[in-house]
Amino acid sequence: MAKHKTHYEDCDVLVxxxxxxxxxATFEARHWGxxxxxxxxxxxxIDRSGxxxxxxxxxxxxxxMQWGENQPEDHVRYARNDLMGMxxxxxxxxxxRHVDSTVHMFDEWGLPMMKNEKTGRYLREGKWQxxxxxxxxxxxxxxxxxxxxxxxxNRIMITHLLMDEAQESRVGGAVGFNMRTGDFHVxxxxxxxxxxxxxxxxxxxxxxGEGMGRTWYAPxxxxxxxxxxxxxxxxxxxMENRIVLCRFKDGYGPVGAYFLHLKTYTQNANGENYEKKxxxxxxxxxxxxxxxxxxxxxxxxxAFIQETIAGGGPIHMVTTEAFQDPHLETVGWENFLGMxxxxxxxxxxxxxxxxxxxxxxTTSEPYVMGSHATCSGAWVSGPExxxxxxxxxxxxxxxxxxxxxxxxxxxxxxxHKFSSGSFTEGRLAAKAAVKYIEDQKAEGIKxxxxxxxxxxxxxxxxxxxxxxxxxEITGGxxxxxxxxxIQGLQRLQRIMDEYVGGIATNYMTNGNMLKRGLELLAWLExxxxxxxxxxxxxxxxxxxxxxxxxxxxCVTEHTMFREETRWPGYYYRGDHMKLDDDNWHCLTVSKxxxxxxxxxxxKVPVYHIVDANEKKKAS
Length: 619
Ligand SMILES: Cc1cc2nc3c(=O)[nH]c(=O)nc-3n(C[C@H](O)[C@H](O)[C@H](O)COP(=O)(O)OP(=O)(O)OC[C@H]3O[C@@H](n4cnc5c(N)ncnc54)[C@H](O)[C@@H]3O)c2cc1C
Description:
- The chain is an alpha/beta fold and about 625 residues long.
- The chain is about 35% helix and about 15% strand.
- The strands form six sheets. Strands 1, 2, 5, 6, 7, 8 and 15 form a seven-stranded mixed beta sheet that branches.
- A hairpin with a 5-residue loop joins strand 7 (about 170-180) and strand 8.
- Helix 5 crosses helix 16 and helix 15 packs antiparallel against helix 16 (about 535-560).
- The chain is globular and about 65 Å long.
- Flavin-adenine dinucleotide (FAD) binds near residues 41, 49, 196 and 422.
């Protein structure tokens, strides 16, 4: 252990992850905490990290309140509808009422925004989206964070949260290691804001073998945002609500601008509008939800999946009409060049010119995240002026661990935040974290050297394991006494894929499969004690895997608990195929006991705050 130097840093606000939410949190913490010490720790480099690393072509969440375009209530209705009723409306409203101010700052900071030439307003792609030239989106927000923080640590992966030893259930910082130097870093902090993104690669991806790593969601988003709080016993919500995306095949290029701006549409292999065909069948499953406008994302996926199972594939996006217009053709290509260059490359490699050939679509493997059209994540307190008592315990966006805050993909129950909403939520969390410190809630935190040393031993154990076990390698990477991170990852992905509703089963699972999945996950957890890492990069892979495995356990427990199919098209409970509002119009909340590793789950009421009276009358 002596070869891994230990560094200590004491601070007031520690931001874990410098993506959209993390940069927002770092920026805002400085605004409210002028004299406070603010540190941001990032696994990659904040200039190009997180889901927005490559850039974006649209900001997907902007109300346009200054022009009377939308109000926060409208956004709550929209997210509620898309998530089949299951959202935390207090959190959604709170984000929506502040998000415009965030976007206006992006504009001031130099993010090139497209303007509507006639009205002078931001150019709308859809009701909520505005179009940007966003290749430099991430460096721009990173600059704001860099100017605000006392220090940004790049290339440090946070592996564990430190817990106060003087007061139960209070955070005291975090530890991790530098992936370039191998040094051990201890951050003792009064508050921690977890903003470490969502989880890709827990389900087996469609692209395997030489295509591995090509997924819709960033492959480096490894579920730390969930594993860190789950490990210390924080409550989680809606972890069953994984997301499946309908995207251009193989390159996962986004379809938003195509549908909304280019007005392209989909059809099956026979040129038919297949969505209509599945209307009656879907109504059988979910009742009147299929009549809602816009059609919830999962239900559109459902029609796609059913049509493919019925042999109507491949499904195509009809681009050949829109692309005859040179302006729309340019927009179609630029859309990829600004955010998913890989899709253009895939089309080139497959001789697809969308002006003449309608490209194929696919449904992705499932991902777990809290900021897109999905709302898995931590169970947090809402703002005091909006939240009902069950949703409020003192500080906005504070988890059920004192001093531990979350934002962006970390926070559950609040879908459709996207990049701007995640940055906004980071700001909200930071403001509350500063208030928590000012209210003297973080006094007397005790972190012993033993706690830190124990984590240090645990963190570097995979290097030790490999050093000893490599002597027993029988060929290639086969060894009786250790498993490599990639072997463990592929085992995890198969378990999740085959038992928890991945692509292998067309997103189908049931109680028996989930039970078996949990059994296999428990054995995997045991074997991960023997994960070996031959270098620092593999050490990062080992810890990413451990975080993914813990996240997966939580996802599986939640999927087992909710005995209904609330979101057909995201996943199906074959033993409970229908949406069941009588029993399951509620949020699911879990807690893992850090001592025993056992999860307990409960139902929590979903409060409809917007249109409360109409909703009451209807039920
Ligand atoms: C493919 C895709 C397309 C999207 N398109 C759009 C769009 O067009 N418009 C739009 O507005 N939004 C879009 N979004 C949504 C937007 O990107 C997310 O809502 C937003 O990035 C979430 O912010 P976040 O901070 O929670 O996560 P991220 O921005 O992903 O940041 C998480 C950060 O945490 C770091 N991290 C992870 N683990 C650790 C660890 N253990 N220790 C330290 N650091 C860690 C990561 O490196 C990363 O920098 C898209 C998302 C995806 C995945």
